Amino acid sequence: MDPALKSRTIARLKAGMERFSPRLRLAAKYIVDNPADFGLDPIRETARKAGVSTYTLVRIASELGFDGFEELREPFRHALVATTDPGAQGRWLDDLRGQGEAGRFQAEVSLNSLSIVKRSLERLSPQALERAASILLSAPSVYVTAVRASYAMAYYFHYVGRMAVPSLKLIPRHMGSAMDDLNEARAGDAILAITINPYSRETIEACEFAQERGMRLVLVSDSDIVAPELKPEVVIVVSALSQHHFGCFSGVAAVLEVLLARLVDRGGEAARQRIRSYETLRREHNVYWSTTKKH
User: Fold this and answer.
1) Using CB atoms within 10 A of its CB, is residue 249 exposed (0-12), middle (13-18) or buried (19+)?
2) CB of 188 within 8 A of CB of 163?
3) Of 239, 207, 200, nearest to 223 (Cα)?
4) What is the per-residue pLDDT for 82?
5) What is the dihedral of CA 63, 64, 67, 71, to 10 degrees?
6) Is 208 exposed, middle or buried (0-12, 13-18, 19+ CB in 10 A)?
7) Which of 53, 105, 201, 208 is most buried, judged by most C-beta within 10 A?
8) How far is Cα 40 from Cα 123, in angstroms, rounded to an integer?
């Protein structure tokens, strides 16, 4: 088995997005976004998860020159590395499973979160990390945007990151729209956008507007195929699939923390001094709770 066949297949799926029919495009996007699950699941389960028919999966295999679904799936199965080692999970998960229905539920959800973090960190390449850091550190102004649940991630990134990168600006602000806050943005500025499926219309439109202004786009998402109009300079792809009826943000938080750490590291002594100044300011103004009252 050619070890590069999986990568070439994914590249061909991405390249074919514009010519594929809507159903084939949906199947291709699922395979690109979920290569591990695709390598593991039988055709009926893959069809269910992708929201297409088994016939559509056979068609896309034929479109790529494979004899059938199993031949298409084989390089993904061959390249698959188990995301968790059962022998390395630790006794705490086994202990949880032994504590009744609630314990079994907690163990499965915990394992799901650990897997999501692991997959997200595995998919973050040093090249993407370095490119994103370079863009954010060199831009005159850096806008950080997201809405709804993703806004919490944007807020966290801005709150910590501004100590290393003073040019960070969180948008939307004051219950306004991201578009309003981008009105003064200029070519050469950058925007860091966070969105996971189902993708926010407001976030996508803000990214499109930013690109029209000549801004550089760094996208954090669960797919590098979010909208055909978007041409990010960097896409940081995270895992967000969960066993719940809502997306899991533990993978997003993990990769953002790696990016924050890199920004502080590359910011050098100037960044560390700014962080110290924030801490000094907070202590002087009694921001943190203490059992010793200030008189």
Assistant:
1) buried
2) no
3) 239
4) 40
5) -130
6) middle
7) 208
8) 18
Q: Mention the CATH class of domain 126-284.
A: alpha beta
Query: What CA–CA distance (Å, rounded) separates 60 from 172?
Result: 40
Task: Say if residues 75 and 5 touch (Cβ distance below 8 Å).
Answer: yes
Buried b / exposed e along 114-126 (16+ C-beta atoms within 10 A)? ebbbebbeebbee
What are 142's strand-pairing partners? 168, 190
Q: What's the token pair of residue 91?
A: 């006794």
76-120 tens-digit pLDDT: 887 764 444 444 456 888 888 899 999 988 988 888 888 889 889
Does the domain formed by 5-79 have CATH 1.20.1440.20?
A: no
Closest alpha carbon to 121 in 267, 250, 260: 250
Strand partners, 195: 221
Taking CA atoms, 211 is separated from 117, 208, 226, in Å, by 30, 5, 15
pLDDT on residue 81: 46
Q: Where in the chain is the domain with CATH 3.40.50.10490?
A: 126-284
Neighbours of 209 (CB within 10 A): 16
Residue with tokens 């020159």: 65
CA 82 to the chain's CA centroid? 20
Residues in CB range of 45: below 8 A, 6 or more apart: none
**Residue 17: which residues within 8 A CB-CB, separation 6 or more?**
25, 28, 29, 225, 228
Q: Tokens 């850091």, residue? A: 133
Domain with CATH 1.10.10.10 in the chain: 5-79
